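Quick start: read one record
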Amino acid sequence: TSFLVLIKGGAKSKYQQRREIWRNSKCPASYKRHNISYRFMLTMPTHQNIDVNSHNQGARASKAETSNMAELRDELMVHKDMVFLLMKDVYTDFSFNTLRTFQWAVDRGMNEDLSVVVLHDDELCLRPSVLRSMCKEATRANSSLYAGTIYWKEADYEIQNQKGLDGSFTPYFDGHLYALSRDLVTATAYHPETVFTSMNLGFVEDFQVGMWVRNQVDWDDLSKEIMYLHNSSLLWEVVKPTSTTPPTKAAGKVNYGGHSPSSCAEFPQDKGA
């Protein structure tokens, strides 16, 4: 049994520097020790405003974009740990980026032993022992797993667009780091309803993922629970190792519907981070 970590990264030069800090941290060694595969998931650099009504087939990448592409190509040749999703690096499209990441995991990233897929930002690192404990809890309960650090069980009036256009709210985990059992990722990646979640909900990635998980209850006649578990110690910061992890927003877990979860077997014991 293994975990797959997919790291969210940007295409501009400043994110290349962050990846180098991450690669030189203790995180890669920790992932190797725990038999965890990882990839940086990137899209193509964008510096120009995109005109959705333009039909200019002769348009070219800007000088800044070609400069970033050259840097990314050189970085890829050295490290071999990057995957490029063929779409522009546009923040408002990040939920589509995430869906493409799920699809890559299903098509290319999963092996027969994989139990959990983790997405996290490029300045963070997963603590495998904490996720292993969560995975065991879900397995004992015969449940699928949706886990993270900051759990939004109810809407906060200070955050815009947490609710759908119909006034409904769906619990979700903050986008810094979240983990889903293999079956949740597989069921979401190519379901025809997944791409239409934004008909009712904003484009924010973590809102969308919460809805994708919740929707699975309605899509099929499922026999297993989906367990929501949070723990603020699930991550540590690589770029700013002296800072504290974000506080947990809300406590508790929620069981929705059901799925056939992947089993979470024993992992090697932690030795440090």
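Residues 241-259, 265-272 have pLDDT under 50 and may be disordered.
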